[in-house]
Amino acid sequence: MGKIHGFKYVLCLSSSILLNLYLLDSVLRRDGELTWSKSAAVEAEAVASISCSGHGRAFLDGLFSQGKPVCECNSCYGGPDCSEFSSGCLADADGGNPLFLEPFWMAHAADSAVVVAGWHRMSYSFDDGSSISKELQRHIRQLHAVTRNAVTEGRFILFGTGSTQLLIAAVHALSQDDSPSPARVVASIPFYPVYEMQTEFFRSVDFKFQGDASDWKNTSSSSLNFIEFVTSPNNPDGQLKEAVLQGPFVKTIHDHAYYWPHFTAIPAPANGDVMIFTMSKITGHAGSRFGYHSRTITYYVI
Ligand SMILES: Cc1ncc(COP(=O)(O)O)c(C=O)c1O
């Protein structure tokens, strides 16, 4: 009789321990399970796995057909999976595209994935009242410290929607309202054509594009106001350019879009008064508009 009681006791105890272990396990498992982000993550991975033959990509925010995302093909390719090459397609040697960095990001898919909740930072400002992320600024300064491509100590950082916006913002900021003649905006040939296009597009009484900086070399010490774009490395020729004009009435905008170690050797950290950088070239995310400018101001463009 005693043996039967003992056996029942051991059976009950073991069952209770097993049941508790099972319940604990399922509670712990549920704790680690995704809830609201799960279907978004499943959708994101499903669209990323659509094959576009290496010549295109499908996006959740892209084209859909019959409720399903479809391939958006790179130039010269077509067809439902971008496998059809259009013979006679002309190569566009006039512009670039950062798609060459796509394989890098795919190789770092888990590290670079970002989950954004629908209620992410809806306020105009951060809790310290500023409208610029201190954490982002810290990372940018750290990045420059690691790559040793710019001095950021004691500098302000301004953000814009791509450096294109900040290039013209800098021209506006550096030209004077009350000047008798518009500031002469120049760049040495060959220069990035957007400098001229934007300066003319935003037609202003305060500034005017005046072509090649070298043409004004002998007049730059006069009281005429000049704004020179200095691009280093230069687009289109990759040269590490320096300012052509000097003088008390010359202001220089240093465009350092490509001043990163994977594009050029970095002889010394850039240290201009107005420096413009952009995420478009360092990471290749040209479609996500963010840039920055540093001054004794720094323009940062992202
Ligand atoms: C020299 C230079 N500056 C600025 C830009 C514009 O960059 P973002 O994409 O930040 O507007 C480019 C883009 O090609 C460039 O070549």
Chain-wise SSE layout:
Layout: H1 2-32, H2 38-48, E1 56-58, E2 64-65, E3 68-69, E4 71-73, E5 77-78, E6 84-85, H3 102-107, H4 109-112, H5 134-147, E7 156-160, H6 163-174, E8 183-187, H7 194-201, E9 207-212, E10 226-231, E11 250-255, E12 274-278, H8 279-282, E13 291-295, E14 297-301
Helix pairs in contact: 6-7
The protein binds pyridoxal-5'-phosphate (PLP).
Residues 162-164, 192, 231, 235, 255, 257, 278, 280, 286, 291, 301 line the site of pyridoxal-5'-phosphate.
What can you see in these coordinates?
- The chain has 302 residues and is of the alpha/beta class.
- It has two domains: 39-86, EGF-like, alliinase (Laminin); 134-301, 3-Layer(aba) Sandwich (Aspartate Aminotransferase, domain 2), CATH 3.40.640.10.
- The protein has eight helices and 14 strands.
- The protein has helices spanning 2-32, 38-48, 102-107, 109-112, 134-147, 163-174, 194-201, 279-282; strands at 56-58, 64-65, 68-69, 71-73, 77-78, 84-85, 156-160, 183-187, 207-212, 226-231, 250-255, 274-278, 291-295, 297-301.
- Strands 7, 8, 9, 10, 11, 12, 13 and 14 form an eight-stranded mixed sheet that branches. Strands 1-4 form a two-stranded antiparallel ribbon. Strands 2-3 form a two-stranded antiparallel ribbon.
- Strand 5 and strand 6 form a beta hairpin.
- The chain is elongated, with a radius of gyration of 28 Å.
- The model has no long low-confidence stretch (mean pLDDT 89).
- This is Alliinase.
- Its cofactor is pyridoxal 5'-phosphate.
